[in-house]
Amino acid sequence: MIQVVCVKQVADTETRVRVAADGRNLDPAGVTWILSPYDEIAVEQALLIRDKQAPGEVVVVSVGGPGVQSTLRNALAMGADRAIHLKTETIGPDPLQVARALAEELRGAGAELVWFGKQAADDDQAQVGPMVAELLGLPCVTMAAGFALDGGKATVEREIEGGREVVEVTLPAAITTEKGLNDPRYASLKGIMAAKRKPIEEKPARLGEPALEVVALELPPPRGAGKVVGQGVEAVSVLVRLLREEAKVI
Amino acid sequence: MSILVFVEQRDARVRSIVREVLGEASRLAAVLGGPVVGVCPAASDPGLATLGDAGAERVLLAAHEAFARYDAAGYTLAVVAAIEAVKPQVVLFGASAMGRDLAPRVAARLGVGLATDCTALAADGGRLTATRPVFAGKAIQKLAFPRVPALASLRPKVFAPAAASGRTATVEPLTVGFDPAAARAKVVRMAAAAGARVDLTEADVIVSGGRGLQDAGNFRLIEELAEALGAAVGASRAVVDAGWRPHSEQVGQTGKTVSPKLYVAVGISGAIQHLAGMSSSRCIVAINKDPEAPIFKVADYGVVGRFEEVVPALIEAVKQLNAQV
User: Fold this and answer.
1) Fold identical between B3-182 and B200-324?
2) CB-CB neighbors (< 8 A) of B77 in chain A
């Protein structure tokens, strides 16, 4: 079975965000780039299925500039078989542009399962997975926290408010992954060495016209300096009075 | 021009987020002009006429027995049919589990832009601008829409419902050519009863615990305080990674981003990923034994002390207060 995992390179979640001189994007200076954490879960799930249930190929695909190849190598080091880099010089293409480029690459690729993280850990849009599915006419289940494959079908659990929805889906299908689905592996030294010899195919990304325009990226207004109302048990009565009379929240 | 709002129902009841979205739609309509119209896929009318009170002039009911539960493909058809019928300038969704799944499909179908999980919308010169947190709240992005309609989903608990107008909405049928037999994905059941407890993203009050609690068993105190406050329970990434609490309770980057009225952080030091997910809360209380903990920098009210002493005293004080009211 062919599985494709669509991944994104993002700034490390420890990053302190600084705004670039254009006022619209992240200042890339000093940023450590990683495979988006939800995408790691997607890669892990595809590898688990390949190794335990449905042998075949796991292909990772990413849209971005030249730097993206280090992130594709991370996924190859985890165990993916090969990678495709859809190249673009556009900084921060919008979700529909990325979805178009991915859909064009995936059309006719024969993937039975197409995996995505539920959202990227930078723009948090959570759009690309269901958009690619829509463009390809595939069924899609988002925010998968449980996944069981049974022949040409899968049963997926997705977290919703106050419970879990159980969805049955017929393959080929697109799935976006939520934390808790699995524990992504760390790449082994052997995996890192092997990744250096695995192929990364380069192609131009066909983004099409933008559907969104970033007007500004700003830092959130700082919260007013808080106050320590006191120490230990004695502070509790003061706290409760402030919450009731000043903040009016209880 | 008009504004279309996706009306989300579950178990034949309109969800509370819909009133928040209608509230913002009404404010936008006052600037952009045009009526606010709802579209609701459902098995039968869940009482849509009452949404007039929340700002809807009329609601299109896409009735189909397969729409009792969320059906991604069918609901997409219904919303797209409503857009074709109404030709709105703006289409709004709640950024709930359902809205987050549905909105990108509609956007891709129409080839237009979508801004998800917005915390503010503005109409400047007849043009919509969406404000949304990125990097889990470490920065704020402002987006414009080159194409019409502009699609946006709104973060729960951020937008105020419209003041009750006492009006009644007209309910009109919307025909959708949907064949459930051709569906390739279907919700077959709920693994836990929907609505049995409050979800973090929709909670007014959240009590969260962190590594400072020292042991998973001590979360009993967090649960007791949450119960006294009528709150949902949250957790830091450290305790979720340690297996003390389920991932669904994690607050912060790679967890949930929340904006409750009151957020109580107990034994949470305040790592940047956690702060990103909760610093838009209206009022933050921190209880921590380390006076240097970064959480005190964002807390409106801090108590320096041992959780074993402070939390039981707080539970008692809240219970007394509840008894008085």
Assistant:
1) yes
2) none
Is residue A177 helix, strand or coil?
A: strand
CA distance B49 to B58: 8
Amino acid type, B18: V
Residue A145 has a pLDDT of: 94
Cα gap B26→B35, rounded to integer Å:
8
Query: Rounded to an integer, what distance in angstroms lies between the CA atom of residue A157 and that of residue A145?
Result: 6
pLDDT tens readout for residues A166-211: 999 999 999 999 998 999 999 999 999 999 999 999 999 999 999 9
Q: Among residues 25-54 of chain B, which lie with CB inside 8 Å of chain A?
A: none
Strands (E), B68-220: 90-94, 114-118, 120-124, 127-134, 139-144, 150-154, 170-173, 185-190, 205-209
Nearest to residue A202, comparing CAs of A49, A102, A81, A61?
A61
Residues A90-105 have pLDDT tens digits of 999 999 999 999 999 9
Q: Which CATH architecture has domain B200-324?
A: 3-Layer(aba) Sandwich (3.40)
Residue in B198, B283, B313 closest to A247 by CB: B283
Place of tokens 């027995």: B65
pLDDT tens, B280-297?
A: 899 999 999 999 999 999
Among candidates A160, A152, A157, which has minimal Cα distance to A182? A157
Give the three-state DSSP class for B202: helix
Is the distance from CB of B4 to CB of B88 less than 8 angstroms?
yes
Distance of alpha carbon B154 from alpha carbon B142, whole angstroms: 14
Structure tokens at B52: 């007039």
Give SS3 for B251.
Answer: strand
CA distance B67 to chain A (A): 14
Q: Is the peptide bond before B149 cis (omega within 30 degrees of 0)?
A: yes
Interface confidence (ipTM) of the complex: 0.94
Question: Measured in whole angstroms, how far is the alpha carbon of residue A206 from the centre of its chain?
Answer: 20
Determine the Cα–Cα distance for residues B195 and A9; give it in Å rounded to an integer. Answer: 36
**Residue spans of chain B under pLDDT 70:** 193-197, 325
Spatial distance between the Cα atoms of B83 and B104, rounded to a whole number of angstroms: 15
Residue A158 region by backbone torsions, left for phi larger than 0, else alpha for psi between -120 and 50, else beta: beta
Which residue is listed with tokens 């300096």?
A: A225
Q: Which CATH superfamily does the domain covering B3-182 fall into? A: HUPs (3.40.50.620)
**CATH T-level assignment (fold) for domain A2-204:** Rossmann fold (3.40.50)
Determine, for residues A250 and B72 on separate chains, whether the beta-carbon distance falls below 8 Å.
Answer: no
Where are the domains positioned within chain B? Answer: 3-182, 200-324
Phi, psi of B77, deg, nearest 5: -60, -40
Ordered by start, the domain boundaries in chain A are 2-204
